[in-house]
Amino acid sequence: MMHIPGSFQLMKSLNRTLILNTIRTKGVIPRSEIAKLTKLTPPTVTNIVNELIREDLVVETEPGTSSGGRKPILLSINGKARFIIGVDIGVSGKIRFGVSDLNGQIVKREVKHLPNGSTSEKEFVKLLVTSLRALIGSLGSDKEKLIGVGIAMHGMVDSEQGIALWAPSLKFKDLPLKEELERALNLPIRVENDAKALAIGEVWFGNGQGEESLVCINVGEGVGAGVILDGKLLHGNDHIAGEVGHTIIDLSGPKCSCGNYGCLQAFASGQALKERALKELALGRSSVLQEKCKGDFDLVDGRLIYEAALEGDSLSIDVLHQTGRYLAVGILNILHFYNPGRIIIGGGVSKAERFILEPIHELVKKRALTPRSKNTRITVSELGEEGSLVGAITLVLSELFTQSISR
Ligand SMILES: [Zn+2]
């Protein structure tokens, strides 16, 4: 058995996490209020709070207002008492690293790119370990305050074992990330699929705060989703719950990277967007895209199409509107599978919100089954490009504060 630092284990007392999470969600709170909210006895609250103060996790702040008499001392989380590292491993070979405090504030960032061409699993793990060691080293004395590393990994992930089961763009299979990194770094490692991590991040820090049931769709090179139903993140029997990109929306549709025909991903991903634009260009339709890519159509991508659309380019606007309509079909299916209170769209394609959201709202209003579901809140992620990174950080935070991975 290897040694894992104790911070995680220390948090395992239910009352402790209950009190910690109550302080976190309230921001600042007096002891008496904690007792009321948690239904724990005042002496229990006092004991545990004293323990948390001794460990520097909780601090006393300025007195609150009180109607006469002594003003109560307020407690809050000491954000800088512990740190977490988040890692987001994207489809394109871009790896984002972030160091966060206990309030989810990212205090340090780094981006690395995998070398072009194929990388072996061994080289990949080596790059992760080297980068993480350098990042940890750069923290100085704060490295003693690290409690874990959360990893948002694209593709299929066994989050319990921390294994990247299948990462299509890197062609990795059954890579035991958790085991390898824990051995190299001697820190607790948590691994989750990127869309699922994003969903958790949204509930904690984004547009999903306060939602019990929410679906977060990541639309970029691939299309995946994290489904939180009644407060629980769904994994399914074989880790593929939420793979909405491979739900089939047209039996005679184009071939998908998975080998099937007509998957949502084959219509709505960044790649599908590019292909539709190229088809129109090949048919001779004029567009500022021709100038923008200087004749090299390989350079046409989602970002370029979005920029052109902003300039009023009708081809690009059409392509984005159509993507919105395809996404709307996928979203309608999701809505009728899960009936979430909110649907959040993240990933690169979500940047084009002003072109894709309208057709989505329109179709959902028209086609959803009930008056309330017609008005399901559908927004883009406010966490932006760092959504999955924030999610990766939340994997560790949620364990510290709630003992449950998703809430
Ligand atoms: Zn597919």
UniProtKB/TrEMBL annotation:
InterPro entries: ATPase_NBD (IPR043129), ROK (IPR000600), ROK_cs (IPR049874), WH-like_DNA-bd_sf (IPR036388), WH_DNA-bd_sf (IPR036390). Keywords: Carbohydrate metabolism, Xylose metabolism. It holds the Pfam family HTH_24. Gene3D superfamilies: 3.30.420.40, Winged helix-like DNA-binding domain superfamily/Winged helix DNA-binding domain. It comes from the Bacteria. Belongs to the ROK (NagC/XylR) family. GO terms for biological process: D-xylose metabolic process. The keyword Transport does not apply. This is ROK family protein. Transcriptional repressor of xylose-utilizing enzymes. Coiled coil: none annotated. SUPFAM superfamilies: Actin-like ATPase domain (SSF53067), Winged helix' DNA-binding domain (SSF46785).
